[in-house]
Specification:
Layout (H helix, E strand, L loop, with lengths): L1 H10 L3 E6 L4 E8 L2 E6 L4 E2 L2 H6 L4 H12 L3 E3 L1
Parallel strand pairs: 1-5
Antiparallel strand pairs: 1-2, 2-3, 3-4
C-alpha cells in the first residue's frame, strides 16, 4: 500500500522542494491527506504520525526518493 501511495504522490506532484533565498537552504515536503509533511531522506526522517509511531519508512519518504530519481517534483523558491 505504501508503494501505491508513493506513486500517487509522485504523479500528482505532491513532492515539493522549497529553496530559500539568499541562504539557499533546501527543505523537502510531501503534501499528504493530513497536510504537508517535512521529509529528509538523508536522515531517514518524516514528520508524519506513521513514521513517529512506527519508525519505518512511510510513503512520504518513498515518494521523495522516487521523485529525486525521476526528477519529478515542484521547486518553490
Amino acid at each position: 500500500m505504501s508503494l501505491e501511495k508513493a506513486k500517487k504522490a509522485l504523479l500528482t506532484k505532491s513532492v515539493k522542494l522549497h529553496v530559500f533565498k539568499p541562504s539557499n537552504i533546501k527543505i523537502w515536503t510531501v503534501v499528504g491527506r493530513e497536510g504537508d509533511e517535512l521529509v529528509n531522506d538523508e536522515e531517514n526522517y518524516c514528520s508524519c504520525k506513521y513514521f513517529f509511531f512506527n519508525e519505518k519508512t512511510c510513503y512520504h519518504l518513498l515518494a521523495l526518493r522516487m521523485a529525486k530519481e525521476e526528477g519529478i517534483y515542484d521547486c518553490i523558491e
